[in-house]
Specification:
This protein has two domains: 117 residues, D-Maltodextrin-Binding Protein, domain 2; 85 residues, D-Maltodextrin-Binding Protein, domain 2. Helix content is 35%, strand content 31%. It contains nine helices and eleven strands. It has a six-stranded mixed sheet with strand order 2-3-1-4-11-5, sandwiched between helices. A five-stranded mixed sheet has the order 8-7-9-6-10. α5 links the parallel β7 and β8. The longest helix is centred in the C-terminal third of the chain and has 14 residues.
Length: 209
């Protein structure tokens, strides 16, 4: 394990928001903004390395100890699970999981087992188990909104921010499932070996929000 604090950031919006947070703290983020195609970057003067990765890989790198910390959405945490500490809600990247179906349809009405399409089968299964309701889950990798339109599902569970995509495709939210935002996670061993430095960085990030 490196003596540096290594933090994995989810590429894209969460990456940009975290870099903005580092800038508020007072870190030099020049290299993070002018990264080119590099995936491992330095924060000058802070003994911090930043690793850019896809969301699910952030969890993997933190869980295996390749990175001490990670910034990842609660959606990925709920879907993938894992062994690590979730230490802070960073507040940005806010959206929600929601159950949606074709406008005017009665998802909970009628008889028989409902079919639900989603990119997040574990989140979906847990949600309906909480309702003591059996559903058939269809895993979709692309635009999950298509499933009700093509009549292969009665509804969908997906991430919703503004709801515009749903409306434009004739769908509507039936029920919110769980709120989502960016979370700071920490490797279990790193929390013991680098506890003071990690807690200091986490506190700085939270104060800068």
């Amino acid at each position: 394990m490196s003596d540096k604090i290594r933090i994995a950031l989810t590429k894209g919006r969460l990456e940009k928001d975290t870099v903005g947070l580092f800038e508020k703290i007072g870190f030099d983020v020049t290299e993070l903004r002018d990264k080119g195609r590099r995936l491992i970057l330095e924060v000058p003067g802070q003994d911090i390395e930043v690793v850019l990765a896809k969301a699910a890989d952030v969890i993997t790198y933190v869980e295996l100890g390749a990175c001490d910390l990670g910034v990842v959405g609660k959606d990925t945490i709920l879907e993938h699970g894992g062994r690590y500490f979730e230490v802070a809600d960073l507040g940005f990247g806010r959206c929600r999981f929601a159950l949606a179906s074709k406008k005017g349809s009665d998802f909970y009405g009628g008889v028989g087992v409902k079919t639900v399409a989603t990119k997040y089968p574990n989140v979906t299964r847990h949600f309906f188990e909480g309702k003591r309701m059996d559903v058939d889950i269809v895993k979709i990798e692309g635009s999950v909104e298509l499933a009700p339109l093509l009549r292969i599902a009665d509804g969908i569970v997906d991430i919703v921010e503004t709801g515009t995509t749903l409306k434009e495709n004739g769908l509507e939210v039936i029920e919110d499932v769980v709120p989502i935002s960016a979370r700071l996670i920490v490797n279990t061993v790193s929390m013991k070996l680098k506890k003071e430095r990690i807690e200091t960085l986490a506190e700085m990030m939270q104060k800068a929000l």
